[in-house]
Specification:
Blueprint (H helix, E strand, L loop, with lengths): L3 E7 L6 H8 L5 E6 L6 H7 L3 E4 L5 H10 L5 E4 L4 E3 L1 H13 L4 E10 L2 E3 L9 E6 L3 E4 L5 E4 L5 E13 L2 H21 L6 H18 L6 H32 L1
Parallel strand pairs: 1-2, 1-4, 2-3, 6-11
Antiparallel strand pairs: 4-8, 5-11, 6-7, 6-8, 9-10
Helix pairs in contact: 5-7, 6-7
């Protein structure tokens, strides 16, 4: 049977971290939390459950996760965000593979809870994520919406059950996150020489809304399906607007 390390990065996650830890403690052999100097009770909660708690400066999403992975004592890693937890079915699936012996990499569906509503359409579900992998052959890349890269080709196996993602507790939180992530994304794209023609600023948000709300059946999630599609379209608008702004600043400096 393989030993399994759970790895989590945190910053001010007192609202979520206990739920995450509780879903892991019966299936992993250690829980490692790398915290970017939280100012709430995150450290107190983690330490009370005996996790390996490490504080380190924020390095960006991918580099922070790579650093956290490097702290794992075992070869196999289950990587979760603090606002995620494993469903009972997914825990059983992971335990079954653990007893059999891990091989390759493993993905599973992520189901998002939005202001108390489970979102099952609009491109939000099934949201497949590879989160169980062998440390030696895997690393994270990307500024936001980080992705795993593999040093060698390995089979990706699917596990039944859901990773439960408790994303936003309020619309304000979603809007704030949209502001934050679009700024990071726009700066990253501009640094790579990307620009945003006016037609993308005008039409891409509309295309995004139509795709998510109608083509991907977001309307079946009722009121919150509409809100999710609307804010996603707004985030698309913000991204292209900021790309144009940052591109102008870059040109002016030159």
């Amino acid at each position: 049977m393989n030993k399994l390390s759970a790895v989590i990065i945190t910053f001010n996650e007192e609202r979520n971290i206990l739920r995450c830890i509780n879903s892991l403690k019966e299936i992993v052999d250690e829980i490692i939390v790398v915290d970017s100097f939280s100012t709430d009770k995150t450290d107190e909660i983690c330490k009370s459950f005996g996790v390996i708690f490490i504080q380190a400066e924020w390095r960006g999403y991918s580099e922070s996760k790579n650093f956290a992975n490097s702290q794992a004592n075992f070869d196999w890693i289950l990587s979760l965000d603090a606002d995620e937890a494993l469903s009972d079915e997914l825990k059983k699936s992971i335990l079954s593979e653990k007893k059999r012996g891990f091989s390759g990499n493993y993905e599973f569906n992520r189901l998002t809870n939005y202001c108390g509503k489970w979102i099952k359409h609009g491109g939000w579900y099934p949201d497949k994520k590879v989160r169980l992998f062998e440390k030696e052959f895997t690393s994270w890349t990307g500024e936001i919406h980080e992705e795993l890269i593999f040093k060698q080709s390995q089979e990706i196996k699917f596990l039944k059950g859901n990773c439960l993602h408790y994303s936003y507790y309020s619309l304000e939180q979603h809007y704030n996150q949209a502001q934050k992530f679009t700024t990071i994304a726009a700066k990253d794209l501009v640094s790579k020489g990307k620009n945003a023609p006016l037609y993308k600023l005008i039409f891409s948000p509309l295309v995004k809304f139509i795709r998510d709300y109608f083509l991907k059946l977001g309307f079946l999630d009722g009121k919150y399906g509409f809100i999710v599609a609307r804010i996603s379209a707004y985030a698309t608008y913000l991204k292209y607007k900021k790309i144009r702004q940052f591109s102008k600043l870059k040109t002016t400096k030159i």
